[in-house]
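>> received
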Amino acid sequence: MDIETLVLSVGINQLADIFKISKENLGYIISSKLFLLPRLKAEINVLTKAKQLLIDNNIPVKSINLKLLTPLLENSLLEEDETLQGLWAYLLANTFDSRKQYDSIIFISILKD
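>> returned
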């Protein structure tokens, strides 16, 4: 059972009693999970597509500087559109490609805007 169904079927008051926490804390926990769930799905989608691109195209992988990887992942998880998630996946795969030199955050900035 997902968190939305659980909240709707049981209610905040009953859940607070079950878990022995305040309604305010439970509300915070639920709202943070509901906020993060679409972003987590987007991140998994982008990473899965990027991994599949690397495997399907037999791309040799290199390590990436965290200064480049962090903004790439942070911005990709904000994308809800599946088509744009695909573009983030291509960018991520190209960034990992050891045959290419995509060491600039300019591509992240372009795709983000």
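>> The two ends are 37 Å apart (CA to CA).
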